[in-house]
């Protein structure tokens, strides 16, 4: 069994001040989205049982990557996992 670790970049540590703050924040947002999209595409390499362990299905990943070039696919995957978890807890 192969051990894989996927980490999403959720926060930047450098907080600029002054006139470059808006530019820096926009650039950081694009970089964060690009990295998250790349990691979501790597989830397609996981087996169905590995995806189930993290609360996802292959269809969830495929649906998430249908978004546009500037979308953050990780947000859709988080919503899908939370929906599945809430449905599971309601059925208990």
Question: What does this molecule look like?
Answer:
This is DUF1127 domain-containing protein. It comes from Flavimaribacter sediminis. This protein is mainly α and 92 residues long. The chain has one domain. Helix 3 packs antiparallel against helix 4. The longest helix has 23 residues. It is elongated, with a radius of gyration of 16 Å. It starts with 20 loop residues before the first helix and ends with a helix. The mean pLDDT is 78.
Percentage of residues in helical conformation: 55-70%
Q: Spell out the helices and strands N to C.
A: HHHH
Q: What Rg do the Cα atoms give?
A: 16 Å
Task: Summarize the biggest pleated sheet.
Answer: none
Beta-strand segment tally:
0
Gross morphology: elongated
Oligomer: single chain
**Which class of secondary structure composition applies to the elements?**
mainly alpha
> Mean pLDDT, nearest integer?
78
- Beta-strand portion reads under 5%
> Helix segment count?
4
Ends apart, CA distance between termini: 31 Å
Low-pLDDT stretches:
none
Give the total of domains: 1
InterPro entries: YjiS-like (IPR009506)
Organism: Flavimaribacter sediminis
Protein name: DUF1127 domain-containing protein
What features would you highlight for this structure?
92 residues, 60% helix, 4 helices, mainly alpha
Question: Helix and strand layout, with pairings?
Answer:
Blueprint: H1 21-43, H2 48-53, H3 58-64, H4 73-91
Helix pairs in contact: 3-4
